[in-house]
Amino acid sequence: SQQGEEDPQALSIQEGENATMNCSYKTSINNLQWYRQNSGRGLVHLILIRSNEREKHSGRLRVTLDTSKKSSSLLITASRAADTASYFCLSGSARQLTFGSGTQLTVLP
Amino acid sequence: DGGITQSPKYLFRKEGQNVTLSCEQNLNHDAMYWYRQDPGQGLRLIYYSQIVNDFQKGDIAEGYSVSREKKESFPLTVTSAQKNPTAFYLCASSELAGVIGTDTQYFGPGTRLTVL
């Protein structure tokens, strides 16, 4: 399988602004997950949205899913310097796991 | 203190040598995974296991081997057949093994392998 696409590859914003990153995938999915990775560390699960859901919220995170376009977006509101990290989407279907190439987010204080 | 551990954090090996990366979890998870990450890129699946004594190839299994003799452990061997082994290796586990790819994964801190 090939990796999904994420855009932008890099995003730099000021603290307090919102950050939006997008993920596209290639095959039908059961769910889509978003993960965060601090430099040189393992990934941490942020949120999971099922294929029959269109939008989900968790704290300052808002995820949308459009299965007709095979795409998802992650919105981080009121960003903080501590949100600086790489963000990856994982599209999951039976016997297939595909991570996106990631968005590097930098939040400037 | 539950979690998933990987050792060592940094590993150096000479060309032509096999090396084994450790991954242990005490979360009682059925499924375990190995990924490779190259600089500035996403993760690619090497192998995964849904149950003891069984494992499946991922997208880039060539040059790697695994074993799953115990539920808690899923070691990865990088063999000399792997042409470009220098990378960051991440192990993960998930609770449910029924439908791979649908469950939240918990990641270890990773092992950075450098081939000299």
Characterise this structure:
The complex is a heterodimer of chains A (109) and B (116). With 109 residues, chain A is mainly beta. In chain A, 0% of the residues lie in helices and 59% in strands. Chain A contains no helices and eleven strands. Chain A has strands at residues 5-7, 10-14, 19-24, 31-37, 43-50, 55-58, 61-66, 71-76, 85-93, 96-99, 103-108. In chain A, strands 2, 4, 5, 9, 10 and 11 form a six-stranded mixed beta sheet that branches. In chain A, a hairpin with a 5-residue loop joins strand 4 (31-37) and strand 5 (43-50). Chain A starts with a strand and ends with a strand. Chain B has 116 residues and is mainly β. Chain B is built from no helices and eleven strands. In chain B, strands 2, 4, 5, 6, 9, 10 and 11 form a seven-stranded mixed beta sheet that branches. In chain B, strands 1-3-8-7 form a four-stranded antiparallel beta sheet, with no helix packed on it. The radius of gyration of chain B is 13 Å and the shape is globular. The model of chain B has no long low-confidence stretch (mean pLDDT 91). Classes of the chains: A mainly beta (109), B mainly beta (116). The A-B interface holds A 1, 3-4, 6, 30-31, 33, 35, 40-45, 48, 88, 90, 92-97, 99-102, 104 and B 33, 35, 40-45, 48, 56, 58-59, 88, 90, 92, 99-110, 112.
Structure described in brief:
With 109 residues, chain A is mainly β. Chain A is built from no helices and 11 strands.
- Percent of residues in helices of chain B comes to under 10%
Kindly state the number of beta strands of chain A: 11
Number of helices of chain B: 0
User: Greatest chain-chain interface?
Assistant: A-B, 28 and 28 residues
- Major sheet summary line of chain A: 6 strands, mixed
Helix content of chain A: under 10%
Low-confidence stretches of chain A: none
Major sheet of chain B? 7 strands, mixed
